[in-house]
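Tutorial sheet, problem 5. The four components below are modelled jointly, 366 residues in total.
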Amino acid sequence: MDRRQRKTRAAIFQAFTELLSEKSFDKMTVEEIIKRADVGRATFYAHFETREYLLKELCHELFCHIFDAVSPTPSDHRHIFACEEHDSVFLHLIKHLEKNDNHVLKLFAGKNNELFLGYFKRGLRELVKANLSMFARRKSDFLPEDLWITHITSTFVETIRWWIDNGKQESAESVAEYFFGLV
Amino acid sequence: MDRRQRKTRAAIFQAFTELLSEKSFDKMTVEEIIKRADVGRATFYAHFETREYLLKELCHELFCHIFDAVSPTPSDHRHIFACEEHDSVFLHLIKHLEKNDNHVLKLFAGKNNELFLGYFKRGLRELVKANLSMFARRKSDFLPEDLWITHITSTFVETIRWWIDNGKQESAESVAEYFFGLV
DNA sequence: TCCATACAAAACAATTTGTTCTATAAATAG
DNA sequence: CTATTTATAGAACAAATTGTTTTGTATGGA
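Model answer (structure tokens):
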């Protein structure tokens, strides 16, 4: 990838990220983004077809990084047998979200972030699937597995949202306990 | 209210509702609405400040009707002691949603319906609060009540969404069982 | 050094928005 | 039934936004 392309892309991501913490996604215009990123109009459209694709690609970068960080690798036996709450992948995820107190967290709480949450849930869903054994199995006896996974996923997101909205007063451990308590 | 106003308002609501079942809210323009409703541009803005207010007022009408229909009145002792799943206000709500298979249900499943779901949840939340006794009380011992109510509310919505997305194959009773099973 | 190409700048048509005007039709009051 | 009020249609309007196109520049990679 051309160095110029990398720079332009980074500048747009940076400007977009800053703007996301100031106003909601759909009230944001391409005009504002390119002004702050200091790139030409045609340049923006050369990189991203629409504003939506920009958000999608940003989310992809962010979430790949986050989920990779908390997911155990095949050679990593940390979590394989860690079916306990105090060492679960979900607690690590919450801690990770707590640590990176940058722009990402604000996206959870704000309004008009359906796209963002959708992309996050898509990644989280895989994590839930891979860790289903952590949750009560008997549920699957009378609940469709699909509904069960959907429920765990959105419960996690709702818990995080509640946490952020309340000013992150609780510790990551408490939030994880709440989450496991709910599901 | 002037008869002309009522007619105009009804025409706009009708056109808006039709369009809602065809495309998502934020891809919808005032242009399309007034064209289908066959009213003048200035007339629309005389009734509704923005598209958002239109959606808000439509939701208000719909939800007031729905929640009033399933909520017991003070003189109505049907549900007061009905803490069982098979006669709960939630089952009645699901049945009500199943029966009125008009435009409302489509709004649950579609994308870009955050505003709609927000308004629905606001009304549902009151219903949940008033029926908290129906759910396990010991939860409140270690869970903030606020989080607990939020969880029940969004679990209901998520269950309905799952139901719609899967083509409404299950009966209202099954859906209610799933809901109670989850919470 | 040379070539390809990413870029800036500007202009552009097409939409959409929200406002304002006038004349007309309809509703309501008396 | 008449008079007055008022909602509406229709049109025109400025402003903002979008996505495309063009031309010249300068930067990167070979």
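Marking note: DSSP finds ten helices and no strands in chain B. Full credit if you identified this.
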